[in-house]
Amino acid sequence: xxxxxxxxxxxxxxxxxxxxxxxxxxxxxxxxxxxxxxxxxxxxxxxxxxxxxxxxxxxxxxxxxxxxxxxxxxxxxxxxxxxxxxxxxxxxxxxxxxxxxxxxxxxxxxxxxxxxxxxxxxxxxxxxxxxxxxxxxxxxxxxxxxxxxxxxxxxxxxxxxxxxxxxxxxxxxxxxxxxxxxxxxxxxxxxxxxxxxxxxxxxxxxxxxxxxxxxxxxxxxxxxxxxxxxxxxxxxxxxxxxxxxxxxxxxxxxxxxxxxxxxxxxxxxxxxxxxxxxxxxxxxxxxxxxxxxxxxxxxxxxxxxxxxxxxxxxxxxxxxxxxxxxxxxxxxxxxxxxxxxxxxxxxxxxxxxxxxxxxxxxxxxxxxxxxxxxxxxxxxxxxxxxxxxxxxxxxxxxxxxxxxxxxxxxxxxxxx
Length: 416
Description:
- By secondary structure, this protein is an alpha/beta fold.
- It has ten helices and 31 strands.
- This is Glucose-1-phosphate adenylyltransferase.
- Keywords: ATP-binding, Carbohydrate metabolism, Glycogen biosynthesis, Glycogen metabolism, Nucleotide-binding, Nucleotidyltransferase, Transferase.
């Protein structure tokens, strides 16, 4: 039997800035933000599609897309067109009107209808490009076809009190969606558990023929915001058949482990999800060779640790250290270092996430920080011990995480 994934395209929505990540998205769109030591956030949606058997992919980009496009060209260039497989980049390029960019998530697909038509597919899987999770989309596709749904919506099962931050589905005992509520104050419970609710993951499965007709009608509606969650899904719930797919049914997890899904859309959430990977047994299994997270792998030498003297020992404890790093006389604890990070003697990194190509000079002490790509930490800089002083130069969150960028370091140096 032909897998449904072979008759499908994964359409990834990757145009949103992700403004809650503050300066981390000043130069790059949220799906292009680094995660987990060597990957980018978008690699999770793309890897899920590839591992599910989908070898036709399209990525709609808009805000500051260069970093994302370059990453996909370098890391996802192994598809072979002669085998009818591909990864297409679809920037907002004023294809419909000289004044009109992508107006909403649905409009990003509408403006590329002719391109999707050329793919010759039966089903389309709409994905958000900015979440961390592992999921088999083939299982969701099968449910969609077997249920006869017009749309199948991927849903997280969350405590009701947390569901107020999501779009929430009310469903009957057959998982048919009876109402869709955006950030409700009193979220409806699931039929099987009054303490739980179903929150939308921003993952939708349609037959392409059905969605194509719906998009054309929506494009002509001057009152529509041309968004899946705001306009199209509520319309189908009201006048068609919308079915909920529970993430627990298709989540790829470690044996006996919990289902893992994270929106790393704030500095605190981004820091926490990265630091969680340094746990003895992390909930997110990046070492799983049966469901790998594919990415661009730079050609770099192995990590190196040098010096073995009192107070000047290159050591990393309960940490992840990527290739190309040189830990020279630095104490690294419960931290995650991306590619090509160089640290120097007498420095201390504690619960710190260090993005690629950072240099930490002698005697610097950094605690509970996120350091942006390419930052040079000056000699003797101390961050994370006095939040009031830190807030004069750096971004300090309410939970005490400090973001450090090049511009912030320049401001700190100017005050010296």
